[in-house]
Amino acid sequence: MNNNGREHNVSSDPHPNHTDCPPINAVGNLSNGQSRLTNSLPTARSCGFHDHDDPDNANLRGRITIQ
Ligand SMILES: [Cu+2]
User: Are strands 45-51 and 8-12 parallel, antiparallel or unpaired?
Assistant: First the structure.
């Protein structure tokens, strides 16, 4: 859920290729108040993501742990 008041583009690391966990790229652009699921993440691992439109902003980075 994007509750940040502006659009964000949720993409897999690494920027700019987004190849590490491609199912995250299904989230993509979220306007304020919008939410979207990733595609299936079937492998137990850790996946980083970022805002593709603000890729160096540490506040807009995160990790998903698949167990
Ligand atoms: Cu990116």
Answer: antiparallel
Encode the chain (67 residues) as per-residue pLDDT tens digits.
Answer: 999 999 999 999 999 999 999 999 999 999 999 999 999 999 999 999 999 999 999 999 999 999 9
Give me the torsion for CA of 28, 29, 32, 34, rounded to 10°.
-50
Q: Which residues pair with 12 in a beta bridge?
A: 49
CA 66 – CA 12 distance, rounded (Å): 14
Residue 18 near residue 12 (C-beta atoms within 8 A):
yes
Give distance in angstroms: CA of 10 to centre of ligand 1: 8
Pairing of strands 62-66, 28-30: unpaired
Ligand 1 center–CA 30 separation, angstroms? 14
